[in-house]
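Standup notes
- HV: blocked on the assembly model, inputs below
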Amino acid sequence: MMDSQVIIVLALLLGSLATTVPVFIALFFAGLAGLMLAGIDPQIVIEVLYRSMDKFALIVVLFFVLCGNIMTSGSIVQKLIKTADAMVGFLPGGLAVAGVLACGFFGAISGSTVATVVAIGGFMIPALVRHGYDPSFSVGLMTTAPVLGVVIPPSISMILYAMISNDSLEALFLTGFIPGLLIIVAMSVYAGLFCRRRGQQTRPRPTVKELLAVFRESIWALLLPLLIFGGIYSGIFTANEAAVVACFYAFIVEIFIHKDMRLRDVKKVVVSSAVTSATLLVIVSGASVFGEYLTFEQIPDRIAQAVMANVQSPWVFLMAVNVLLLVVGMFMDIISATLILTPIFLPLLSRFGIDSLHFGLLMTLNLGIGYCTPPLGVSLYISGAVADRNLLYVSRSVLPFLFIQIALLLLLTYVPELVMWLPRLVYG
Amino acid sequence: MNRKILEKFDRLLGGVEDWALFLSVILALLVALTNVALRKLTPVSLYWSDEVVRKAIFFSAFIGCSAAVRRRALIRIDAMPQMLPVLKKPLTLLNHLAVLVFAGIMIRLGWKFTLVAFRDPFARTSTLQIPEWWFYAVLPTMGALLVVHTLLVMIEDWTGRRDGADDTAADQGQA
């Protein structure tokens, strides 16, 4: 009897999601229906919604979204791109490598893949094509490199994962640095080799004077990631406080130093950030209602028992999860997928001896790759719009880069030291 | 004539929502920042700052949700209309109906809960002792705003001013 109820609830959830019902409402309906079928007073959902939003930790979502929006409204993004270009633009495939590095810089301040596609890809794809780079290569590179937005902290999906798993957010953030660096190196090497084979001209190395001039111009933008991570890992701020301080800093820099944002723009940026973060936070509240049902029916434990009965090896488990998450990432945004799937996977991690910090990074990277996986990844559509190309063209363009990222994902899956070395070094 | 009145009402409501969101986020930012500065630089801290920030974010999340409906910015999975464009219009209608049902639940259950908290003299926040019903009332208020915004969006779709357009990709761009 109980199993048929579970099937009804899951069918309601999947049916609502498939028919474009907003994700948080789909989760709310499924959770409410489940609780009612189990004979629980529906009034409880109001209490759950209320408590789910009454958490101080959510401040970090709002303020990192605001920080990203301040940067894209002002000139910090252009300055980051200019700095990346000055640092690596003279290498083979220089401007392309600069694009990858700029995604890394932007990822160290923003927490989202698609925001990175819009902010960096929107600027870099036309710039690369204008400088004679192969259009397909340019589109593929700048559609896939923005995965760095979620891998390099701060990352909104990592924030929500840590909230559910009760991991230290500061430790989870540390898992992203080495994988982020590996992605930058692997994609840059491929870009360099591709451009050299194609006979792409290289540019002269900038003089020290030129380099210093660029750094001087960009110093305030470059200090922002330093402020965030320096503050967190020197123990001056918590991640929550770092988000607040970063917003204040970004406002001061854009309004009074760069003078690229007027005071009257502040309201527009704040309201747009409030709406964007609300679209994320209400998913947290919908997932809380659904989570209440999952907990009541002990569904995560039941799934864990079923999986344990059929899968004994952590290797096989991780491979199956990787495939599942890649597919889910194609259809579902990273926030919803993190909030829905994390409570289901968590009980399995301890049984397979997998560190939840390691898994958090794998989940984030995997869902990020799903964002640019044909035929439905959201980034494909955004890049297509930016480059004025159709879906088929963009889908073909991303393939070599997807192979690189999936190979790195497998490396990070089966060599956990690459992910866990830094958090263990800092937190023991 | 009717359209003009409707547009005026839409602008007015949007303006009130925007200011409410702006003030709540700025309040949260200033209070949190002041507390960080005080804690790091002096032995003093604002014992009530966490509560103010939590309530401001609570308010901005639910009022922001209704503003997101007006901007068609709620996150949803739009794989099906991409694969079967013919379903775009019926799915858009279904989407609106789902929001209306959700809004109805928020108004009914949220109102009941607000009344319960209103009648309970001990239902107050832990540090500032603000009556909790003020915050429970945000839920039925959001429900009412969702109804108004959804109807405005449906009228837009119906009159062809906007063809049930799908903003998902662009909206997720911010997420």
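- HV (later): unblocked. The helical segments of chain B are 2-41, 49-70, 79-83, 88-119, 133-136, 138-158, 168-172. The CA atoms of residues 66 and 128 of chain B lie 27 Å apart.
- Next: hand off to the docking folks.
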